[in-house]
Amino acid sequence: IKKTFCVKVKMSCRPFIRWVGGKNLLLKNLKPLVDSIDLSANKYIEPFIGGGSLFLSGIKAQSHIINDLNSDLSFCYQLLSSDETFNSLVVELSDPKYINDKPTFVLMKSRFNELKKGNVQSIERSALFIYLNYLCFNGFYIESKRTGIYNSGFGYRTTLRWPGLCIDRLTTVRNYLSDRNTVVCNKDYSEILKVARKGDLIYLDPPYFDCNTFTSYTQKQFDTQSQIDLVDWCDRLDKLGCYIVYSNNNKQFIKDLFDKLGGKWKCAEFTVNRVVSCKINGRQNSKNELIITNF
What we know:
Blueprint: E1 2-3, H1 27-35, E2 43-46, E3 63-67, H2 71-79, H3 83-93, H4 102-118, H5 123-135, H6 164-178, E4 182-185, H7 189-193, E5 201-204, H8 224-240, E6 243-249, H9 252-259, E7 266-275, E8 284-293
Parallel strand pairs: 1-7, 2-3, 2-5, 3-4, 5-6
Antiparallel strand pairs: 6-8, 7-8
């Protein structure tokens, strides 16, 4: 893999959600790569959208496909795609029952899990998802591997401007989506990649490999074989004529997978300080991360 290094960019709008592993800190490196490709007649595809930092940074394409396997997250994006559902979400979040304190957080978490068991999306469930995200510790979305129950802890964000900050960010993302031809999906990433065509750009940001910090965003785990399968998809998309931008933990295993694909893949290594730990002496960890491209 060839090593390259790429510099400073302003986001068009901030993510409306806190998401562990968000790409704000790598945006200055990712955005110039995407901007170097003319997508005026092609799609921008992001199968692991998460908080959507790169997508929300002003990506310009003929059309955009964003996806996440976390059904609550993807449904929130869908609500923001319509004025009617966006307005209903804001009205719900403005209800005074959503109080920023631990007793209310515990009650709301119980209600959210009750609605999750029913497996039906609704405005209330989305409002609860956003409320819990803003008030939980470090934006951790923790689902039990066995039951799928949400179990993040209260974050004691006593100075948070709630719900004003949340509504402000939801509004900017709503305005951003209204200016773009965007399809929001809730599928396995492989189903999304099947629609890719020559000239499309795909940004792949999977749950990181062999990471000591939190990477579990759904009950379904993204294991070693999943990492291998995704790199196989990179090879297929490259042969199709797509542009690939891929990020992951800086591990030799990942670099070896791309080495096997041939010499055209370029690799840049970056050190990123992420706030991830619940322990005071480990809250800011320096992480070595990779950005790999085929162009």
